[in-house]
Here is the input.
Amino acid sequence: MYFFFNPHLTRTAAFLLTFTFITIANASAQTITQTIRGVVVDEDARSPLPGASVAVAEHLHLGTTTDADGKFRITGVPIGRVTLIVSFIGYENKVVPNILLTSGKETVLELALRESLVMIEAVEVKANADKSTIANEMAITSARGFTVEETRRYAGSFNDPARMVSAYAGVDVDASGDNFIVVRGNSPKGIQWRLEGIDIPNPNHFSDEGATGGPINALNSQMLADSEFFTGAFPAEFGNALSGVFDMKLRKGNNEKREYALSVGVLGTDATMEGPFVKGGQSSYLVNYRYSTLTLLNDLGVVDFGGIPKYQDLSFKLHFPTRRLGTFSVFGLGGKSKITEETFDKDDEDLLLERGFYDAQMGVAGITQYWPLGERTYVQNSFALSRNGSGYRGFRPDEESFLRRIEDFEMDKSSLKGSSTLTHKIDAGHTLQAGVIYTRHRFNFYYEEYRASTDQYVREQDFNGKAEQYQGFVSWKYRPIESLTFVSGVHAQKVSLSDAVSFEPRASARWQFLPRQAFTVGFGVHGKMESLPNYFAIIPDEHGEPWMPNRNLGLSKARHYVVGYENKVGQNLFMKLEAYYQDIYNVPVEDDPASSYSLINQVDGFADRVLVNKGTGHNVGIEMTLERYFADNYYFMITASVFDSKYKALDGVERNTLFNGNVVGNALFGKEFLIGSRNNTRKVIGVNARVSSLGGRRYTPVDLEASMAKGGTVLREELAFSRRGDNVFIANLAVSYRIDSRRVSQELKLDLQNATNNAARLGYYFNEHTEEVDSFSQLPMLPVVAYTVYF
Here is the structure.
């Protein structure tokens, strides 16, 4: 995808946005306040807790207790950032810091408390925040929760959760602008995306089947609830993931009042609506629709240039509580994108060298049921249908200037998914969880390209078929004492393309040996099915006949070992150290004793070689996080990762993987300045910055003579990943201006990606038009302006 920066257009857009940024005044002399409401539940059983105390730390006179359904409501809370203190006899206290209240939207929360093993009659409530805990009670190691407010706040995140988590320890990014993430030296294909508890296709625009990235995420952060990100040794419920899990959840729409948000920005124009279906009822809806702003401007004749990225997406969640069958949620996410790419001669700008038409789409729609079977047992059922696919037609002028088709592909897949999970809390010390997952894929893969060296078309994919995957898991959490937690379990999975069954044991423990310090340890075996096009590549046999030799490939697998140390240094300061070793095996590699080729380095596409599951690899590293939670109007986070990522193919040589950058470092800082607070308005300026330093990715040098003979890139595979690209420096800066009036909240934000316009060379390729080796560089400076109003 290509972005075009027009200084005149940017100045005009900035003027128009500034002109339309109108403060809505109100004559009322009362302080602007907002409502906080929600429900308090048991962490393991998810059952409501009536009689729990909920108070606002900054305004201790503002508080309440939950009703018979565990619900609470606190009205008249002054807008700004507040902290909630939640307590209940027999349960551990919970402090929820940094809740941002604005005038344009109510805050609705679900707060989970952990039952105490020590029965007490009274509790001493202390405002001691612990943001390091996450909602998933089975996750102890290598897990991080994040809020929708963080996705909006972090510089360079563009309200995108995938870009936001790239600031976490152990996570590397693609500096060229793609949205894939590398976790602990693993290929981004090892990531699993989940939504509402069920795995989904890659949710990025402009992505291919088998890839995990794309320039823009189709899921708008306006839709997100608190979500979680796992980087290794994850719980038994997660299968078919090798390196990490992105577990995203949609929030429920407001079931008491209708609320709206409108946003106009460089990356899209979108609208969000939410509210009750019937006034006074408990059901609600939440809908967001976004359309490419550049496409709108092009349609209006404001801009006129080639290569405009055109995309749109829709997401929704409908919430339906019932009396006997629990709560049902209907959810969906879909996106469409397309672009026309053209290449012109450097010396003659009117001479077309190549033209291509690319389109992609993804969509998922599902229904979930949360069904309580008593105070200590509940069932979570999910069913979803999804589809994703992409297509490309590439053309090049021949000697007579007629466009010749040089590339043609369609990669389409649809999936039916169903899962059921039973959770039973035996007592305060024991919780059991068991579940089954079924997935059925139907697909149509087609790929044909023109080979100039032989003047022939070669078909490498042409298959219409199906594949099934079966998964099951059991997990047990055991707390013998308050300070010690064990989680163990096993995940099993089988793919219909192979007879092998993968049994994957998992175990982890957390020992809080001092009130503010803890040790963690984790182990897990994890398996991942390769992307489906790899199984159905057409490869000529020794007689030149078409053959699909990779149809019975097994799962790639890894053993994860993790140890960690956590220290709550201060009330808002948290430090975490984590070391890991990943033993990777059963990786598909080329069936040639002289070959260095391994799918461990694959990012997208498919292999055009005969493969066997005999490859190995390992990742080893140590990570550090020092985070100061947002308090007193500022925050900071420093993360550092030092790692080594190696692999072996059948040639037996240990080599660097493509992703072995060795070091990743991030420093984030943000502060808010209250510049005006009268009875009818509140004005806040926010400044957020992020600096990242990334070790250069590895690459394989280009064989120029062989590339010229073939008419395409040929790599010197005997020197696989022996070279290193430039180290990458990225500085992001975001400045926001928020105005809260009586009923409306407005925000104008400038998010500047790569503010120093650094241009590190990331790798090299053969340019077929110039017959030279060219380099590609990191994404240049990209300013993103957005105006949002909530009412």
DSSP finds five helices and 43 strands in the chain. Residues 7-20 form the longest helix (14 residues).
